Amino acid sequence: MTDLAGGDAELIRASLQEPERFAALFDRHAPAIHQYVARRLGRDAADDVTAETFLTAFRIRARFDPARAGVRPWLYGIAAKQIGRHRRQEVQALKLLARTGHDPVADSWTDSADDRVAAEAAARPLAGALARLSAGDRHVLLLFAWADFSYQEIAEALGIPVGTVRSRLNRARRKLRTQAGAAGGPLVEARIHEGDPA
């Protein structure tokens, strides 16, 4: 997804004179960021982290450079920094999921009891493997798999070179294959963007 017609960058620029215009940016992007954060940290933290993300974005909006990155990677980069602050909670949640196999976020999209049991069985080893990844590898992998970012968007969001994105994604996939086996399949074999080699 790119910045929507109507120009997200233009909204940021206009909000410098008319701060209330920033609300449209929130309306466009907050649901996706909230969902991404909820998958990383759980629903309890998602509201706070999403609010912190947009509060920070509003405060630093004058520094946004539309030539450097799109609004979406910029917002996810801010969210990634907020998630980093909540990293301990994320690792604890992944370890709990690894022990119990219960993913409260998955409940909302797992319809039947049979599907839920299968999802919980697969979630345990995957959550344990995700918890053992470095924060940098986990950020790259989950932006790629859950936020559907291209390598370039991940690089812009995290402020790292595309080559680093490629190596972190490769390393994370390799570790998931080793540690989570078949349970890591959806993340290990995540879609490949056009022009992004596996």
Verbal overview:
It is a single chain. The protein has helices spanning 8-15, 22-41, 43-59, 71-85, 87-100, 104-107, 113-132, 135-145, 151-158, 162-180, 185-188. With 198 residues, the chain is mainly alpha-helical. Helix 4 (71-85) packs across helix 9 (151-158), helix 5 (87-100) packs across helix 7 and helix 8 (135-145) crosses helix 10 (162-180).
Average pLDDT level:
78
Total number of strands:
0
Largest sheet: none
| Helix/strand order | HHHHHHHHHHH
Task: Give the helix/strand class.
Answer: mainly alpha
Q: Tell me roughly what share of residues is in helical segments.
A: over 70%
Radius of gyration: 17 Å
User: Approximately how much beta-strand content do the residues carry?
Assistant: under 5%
Provide a count of the helices: 11
Uncertain regions spanning at least 5 consecutive residues: 1-6, 108-122, 191-198
> Looking at the structure, what is the overall shape?
globular
Query: Between the first and last Cα atoms, what is the distance in angstroms?
Result: 21 Å
Topology readout:
Elements (H helix, E strand, L loop, with lengths): L7 H8 L6 H20 L1 H17 L11 H15 L1 H14 L3 H4 L5 H20 L2 H11 L5 H8 L3 H19 L4 H4 L10
Helix pairs in contact: 2-3, 2-4, 3-4, 4-9, 5-7, 7-10, 8-10, 9-10
Concise account of the structure shown:
By secondary structure, the protein is mainly alpha-helical.
